[in-house]
Amino acid sequence: SKISPRHMHQGAHYHEIFAEGCRISGNVEVARVPGTVHFQAAHTNEKTLNLAFTNVSHKINHFSFGEDPTWGQRLLPSQYRKHAAPLDGRTFHVDKFHQAPHHFIKVVHTRFDR
């Protein structure tokens, strides 16, 4: 079958992304070497996605590397806190179907002394 323009939901701009969808949480142990981490929508045995209609708008509540930085962030001067977890609390909207934002972060080991 063919996807025609009438199937593309031309006027849709916002999905109920915060009422339903994926919730990702967990820990990943990796070596301290350069690399990449990927999260992507994909087919499973239970669900088949129509990638032409997939909207991957998302909000990042918290994303960090290393030990839990919560206690240490309270000790940081306020102008530095946003640099410890730059994606925290940010929302990324996708205006069109079949698009996905990419996030690039450089992780630098940093130690703050009291």
Automatic annotation (TrEMBL):
InterPro entries: Erv (IPR045888), Erv_C (IPR012936)
Domain (Endoplasmic reticulum vesicle transporter C-terminal): residue spans on this chain: 13-113
A Pfam short name: COPIIcoated_ERV
GO cellular component: COPII-coated ER to Golgi transport vesicle; endoplasmic reticulum
Protein name as annotated: Endoplasmic reticulum vesicle transporter C-terminal domain-containing protein
Organism: Zooxanthella nutricula
Lineage: Eukaryota, Sar, Alveolata, Dinophyceae, Peridiniales
